[in-house]
Here is the input.
Amino acid sequence: MYLCTCMTKKGYDTEITDLFFALIRCSIGKEEQLPHTPTPEQWQELFDISKKQTLAGIIFAGIERLPQEQRPPKALLLQWYLLRENIKNANISLNKKVVAVSRKFKAEGFNNSILKGQGIAQLYPNPLLRTPGDIDIWLEGGSDKVISFIRTIAPDCKPTYHHVDFNISNEVDIEVHYRPTWMYSPRTNKRLQKYFAKYEAMQFSNTVSAGDEEFNAPTPAFNMVYIPIHIYRHLFSEGIGLRQILDYYYVLMQSLSDTEREECKAVLISVNLKRFMQSLMYVMQQIFHLDENYMLFKPDKKGGEFLMHEIMTAGNFGHHDTRYKEKGEGYSLALMYNLVKRMFILVPRHPSEVLWAPIFKIWHFFWCKNH
Here is the structure.
């Protein structure tokens, strides 16, 4: 039996939360109807939560599966439908831009792969319903070569350790990665970068289809390691949204050999993520009813309840987290205060990464100054 008891501790409406999770399960084909019919007021709350978690398009697919008597009021249903159509059109447009950007970098001599976003979307039953974001593209060549080239396009760009971002004619934000992600601890980061280097050529040649478009994106095995680390990084910075968790659900559902799964587990353990992965598996179990055959680790209830609370509090990229007044990247006093406050929350469960964070931040400040 699946229970969402973690939502009661901070005053959440458990009925709405459980309805929302049930609606997600309808959207991914795990259930055919809701436990009971929501009131018009509850439907409005469900709509608001779906937008907060950037799952409105996905959840509309669940609404279409519901019995007629369980569906939202007509006015809200129309509003939801129009939002879904906007999401579909945005995806079609972004897919074309992804291909154009990928081809542009390829023409300049950079093999590349589309991280997260439009690459992950292709794992969904209907990729066009996943709310799109910006373009994350991983370029071959290393930080110095990539940064040098990007400065010919955007001279004022400000690189960070793993990526540099810029905007093309106010049309789309692009994050150009020379490292997919990182860890604060030097020891675990070295292991992680070694894993990326071992398999990077495969990611630059793995082609996926998005409708009539094609581009390179990571393999399911690579994403099985990369995506949870990306989620972990958001736990330490902006916050986690359910869209990121659903992304990983569809990664876990991919067909991998036992050898590939065991290697993914070994890599995640080597970078000290076993405990986090156990928490993540609990969230997968509670919200999506993920079968244990697809789990990489045994679920941990205590850590999972903490993680679920963070997800429901912060929303997508922490945009709805009222605990932190100033958001973004940089080294202002307010942002440093936010970091300390968040680290204090995380230290009981992730002590090593928390303790290395301030040292990494100091080192990173000077790294940015020199690049």
User: Anything to note?
Assistant: The first strand starts at residue 112 and ends at 115. The mean pLDDT is 89.
